[in-house]
Amino acid sequence: MSDGVEVVAERPGRRRVLITGLSSYWGGRLAQALESFAEVEAIVGVDSRDPTRELERTEFVKVSNQHGLIQRIVRAARIDTVIDARLVVDSITTSRQRAHESNVIGTMNLLAACAGEASPVRKFIFKSSGHVYGSAQTDPAFFTEVMGRSGPATSPIERDVGEAEASVIDFAAKQKNVDVTVLRCANVLGPDVNTSFARMFQLPLVPMVAGFDPRLQFVHEDDVVHALEHAAVNRLPGVFNVAADGVLALSEIIGLLGKRPLPVLPPWGNGLLTAPLRTLGIQIPPEMQSMMRFGRGLDNRRYKASGFLYGYTTRESVLAFAEHLRLQPILRGVESSYTYEGEVERFLRRSPLTRPPQPESTEASGTESEPFGI
Q1: d(CA 212, CA 270)
Q2: Is residue 356 domain-resident?
Q3: What pLDDT shows up at residue 25?
Q4: Considering the domain boundaries, does residue 352 fall inside one?
């Protein structure tokens, strides 16, 4: 895969897109976004669970991650672009076993479904994570895409992300006719996405590790969706960091949120780090514990060189989240949720009764029609 900084983005023809993890936050939002793109001819979403967002053009197929079944869908629907949005990067969202099955086994099965000379797939986009870089005292201020982590992975999620991404890069080396794009996303912050940082920032007293004030970098949830859109409609093979401009010390973030710091966590030992909070029902997952001490920064220049524009800086992402927290008590109970009903969706999409009325024929209106093309 190319590691140069300069990237030439090319506009492709009409796309037939497969999105994995349609029921996930990222899969659902991306499908909604791509439905408005004229260059996207068809969208198929696959998942083992029902969609969580209302969709219009997207065809949903309930399927497990068995590569044989997905391969049949890919070839039958003549899919040329596959976007893998399944990666679990926060261990609070699921069990360890399910995360490993999705991240490692699921990625390998999906790649197998897209491989082969008979495959119509010509573009593969993988939503990855900055967890591949880790977080350590000896890390650079900002990781570029050609850098690696300074030590072995210290948490199961970090190991999963590294293994999954290694499989994707190996796939890119073997499938020369497929453009593979890897997007390594920084920590995400936004009103809707569920992350450990978002949960921690909602506390009246935000915990800190005694003696540490890490530099943190975020990317707004909307910018992640736009980054995936950008990769879907442009030719961008390679690895790219997706992270907003700027970093903030944790103490600065706490101040912008109108919160107060609680520097009570001991700076040594993972068990000792989290034990005081577990008694309060607060969970700091293993992949976040090193970041609470050392932070992490990603160099975002390469993706910006492809023409991508961020809507938020790190500071603006934090301020937008602060505004969300301020309005949350007012909006609670007002927002409506969506529940997928398969029979209703099939009726609305396929029944002739739901088709728009056709214009009256020229014979009924008493006028003569002219030959086509004249």
Answers
A1: 15
A2: no
A3: 95
A4: no
